[in-house]
Design goal:
Blueprint: E1 3-7, H1 13-30, E2 46-52, E3 55-63, E4 72-79, H2 88-102, E5 109-114, H3 118-122, E6 127-128, E7 133-135, E8 138-145
Parallel strand pairs: 4-5
Antiparallel strand pairs: 1-2, 2-3, 3-4, 5-8, 6-8, 7-8
């Protein structure tokens, strides 16, 4: 699988357009959840994605420490529908965590997970750190990988 990680300024206009298009298709249209997809955080994030011929197959963004939380965060995790149930989400999360551990030299990671995905994120070592709450009408839970060295 061809994975790329880029800061905002390294994204071409067409790559950025394709990423945002897929995020809107999944989070707003597919999940029937009207919310402000563009939140002024993308400009300071790392963007991890896999594409073929311009088609975004899987994507997430990595938020540096203190941008949204005290910890590094992974967000906007998507796999385009035709590529689901093929291990792409597992590969995506593995690559994101590897980048955070090796390049950002961070071991604590916080996410807002959809409640039904707790088991998936738990398989990477994420533990729930909040009760379930509604975020844009969808049950979510905060989860973290806590620094194992402390």
């Amino acid at each position: 699988m061809n994975w790329q990680i880029k800061v905002f300024d390294e994204l071409t206009k067409i790559k950025l357009y394709n990423i945002i298009k897929e995020r809107i298709n999944i989070f707003v249209v597919e999940q029937n959840c009207p919310y402000p997809e563009l939140d002024n955080l993308d400009q300071q994030c790392y963007h991890l994605f896999s594409e073929t011929n311009g088609e975004i197959k899987a994507y997430c963004r990595i938020l540096p420490k203190r941008l949204k939380y005290d910890e590094v965060s992974i967000g906007r995790v998507i796999v385009k529908e035709p590529y689901r149930r093929k291990g792409l989400a597992t590969e995506l999360l593995s690559k994101a965590i590897e980048f955070i551990n090796n390049e950002l030299v961070e071991t604590e990671i916080k996410i807002q997970a959809q409640d039904h995905l707790q088991g998936f994120y738990g398989s990477f070592g994420f533990q729930p750190t909040s009760n379930v709450y509604l975020e844009d009408g969808i049950p979510h839970v905060d989860m973290e990988i806590i620094d194992k060295q402390n």
